[in-house]
Amino acid sequence: MALHSNLPPSPSPSAPGHVALPVIRTIGLAQPLQWLARGAQDMRRGGWLSLAHGLVLAAFGGLLLLLAHEHFWLLAGALSGFLVVAPVLATSLYAISRALERGEAINTKLVVKTWTRWQHSRYVVRGGYWCLVRFGLLLALAGTGWVLTSAALITLMAPQPINTPVDFLRHIVLAPNYYVFELWLTMGGLMAAPIFASSVIAMPLLLDRRVNVMQAVLASWQAVLTNPVPMALWAALIMGLTLLGLGTLLVGLIFVLPLLGHASWHAYRDLVDSSNLPERLPPEGSV
Fold it and tell me: Which of 1, 60, 87, 153 is the most buried (most CB within 10 A)?
């Protein structure tokens, strides 16, 4: 059972010089396992619509594999960079879980509306729907930066050209006198940790409440710092399940990605008490 933390209340939204943040709850160590269980329930109730998300994303991964299969130095960075922007790609999965929570209809109209509502956003409104797009662009930029960094590192430091997975395994992972793989993992971890902390609950919060990108990112960091051990377990579960999906020639991603997307909504709901923030309403004139 999630308990409220003893952190002081967030400052009033009207207080000058302060950023209004939601109250972050303290959770138990095993809570991430419950998120997976509830995510699995949402995936079952979402049916083909949830699995369609996984199919589309797995197909995109397959396209990356097809285009870069002879340039594994690029593929390694592209697939890991793809995971950086996964919180954005799962936006409509959050919307499905929210609709299930509210007892609302689950259909293609919900998905289309989730992905097109930003076009109707009033850009001058603080915390408008455009914030989701801005945050998505930031994650895409971070993912692109990692792809370029990864490709440059492997290309410049590998003792032999890396064109296939076998080359990567032989000359990077198993190379006895080189430490390129360790350096690659270290750099990836140094980049992944702040991205995880910045995005773990940011997208669901941006979808659910009228907040801006700074509020969402700060709340996400606060959730991680308040619950370091459970969130480390959550990060490990995300990584482990994703590797499992990749290791099944991307077929497992059809199930893993919707599962993690739905579970991330429940992570947000357990970690964040957002009742002090205005709910994000549909734009005027939308159906």
Answer: 87
What lies within 8 Å, CB to CB, of 257 at 6+ separation is: 53, 54, 57, 58, 86, 89, 90, 245
Q: Record the pTM.
A: 0.81
Percent above pLDDT 90 for the chain: 41
First-to-last alpha carbon distance for the chain, in angstroms, is 37
Q: In sequence order, what are the residues at sequence separation of 6 or more whose Cβ sits closer than 8 angstroms to the Cβ of residue 250?
A: 58, 61, 62, 65
For residue 26, the SS3 value is strand
Say how far apart CA 197 and CA 189 lie, in whole Å: 12
For residue 248, list its beta bridge partners. none
Are the C-beta atoms of 88 and 142 separated by less than 8 Å?
no
Distance CA 184, CA 177 (A): 15
Is 218 or 117 the better-scoring residue by pLDDT?
218
Phi, psi angles (nearest 5°) of residue 74: -85, -40
Predicted pLDDT of residue 13:
42
pLDDT of residue 262: 98
Q: Given 3-state DSSP classes, what are the helix, strand and coil percentages for the chain, each rounded to the nearest 5? A: 70, 5, 30
